[in-house]
Specification:
7 strands, alpha/beta, globular, 202 residues
Length: 202
């Protein structure tokens, strides 16, 4: 599940994300993984947690998964109300979206990898009782226990300690980094991401 910041400062980063996904798909196909990809925005005011794109589930069976991913990213509306990536990913994988708008995406026999792409830190406090990192970690832990398979979050964000300069630049994504580290995910700099590192352990 890709959780993508679509604020105005993300134009260069989104272009890089779409181009980098091409190589990532090649790696996934080489591993012969039966993957499903979905894309949501970090903005909880815009159909919170709803998958975008047509099809809204991108699979290895499509003729061109990379093109479908790029189309999904392009279809995301411009953010109008901050970046609440942790709340958004939980909303995407919870009811009513789970069996409604996002039906068919979450498979009980599949590991879960959430990937947040943002040049800002998380702003999910109002949606997750003021403890977004705790709630996100709890959700991932419960998913892993429920399915018996890994569930983790990776963060493509501004790195510690000072963020980064390059493309549009980014502040430190501290909350996303904290969840990535405790869940066993990867942390990549959004200013120069190598998306293939997200699955380096395969």
């Amino acid at each position: 599940l890709w959780v993508v910041d679509t604020t105005g400062s993300m134009n260069e980063e989104l272009a890089s994300l779409k181009s980098g996904f091409v190589e990532l798909v090649e790696d996934l196909n080489n591993e012969q993984l039966n993957y499903q990809v979905g894309v949501v925005t970090t903005d909880m005011s815009l159909d919170a947690g709803t998958l975008y794109g047509n099809p809204w589930i991108i699979t290895s069976e499509l003729d061109d998964p990379s093109e479908s991913f790029a189309d999904a990213v392009d279809s995301l509306p411009a953010s109008v109300d901050g970046e609440a990536g942790l709340a958004s990913f939980i909303a995407a994988l919870s009811e009513p979206n789970l069996s409604g708008a996002n039906r068919g995406f979450r498979r009980d026999d599949a590991a879960l990898h959430v990937i947040v792409v943002s040049d800002s830190d998380d702003q999910s406090d109002e949606y997750l009782n003021g403890t977004p990192e705790v709630e996100a970690d709890k959700f991932l832990t419960e998913e892993a226990l429920r399915t018996g398979l890994p569930a983790w979050l990776s963060a493509v964000v501004g790195p510690e300690p000072l963020g980064c300069v390059g493309q549009g630049g980014a502040v430190v994504g501290s909350a996303y980094i904290a969840v990535a580290e405790v869940s066993g995910g990867e942390v990549l700099s959004i200013c120069e991401p190598d998306l293939t590192e997200l699955f380096g352990g395969l």
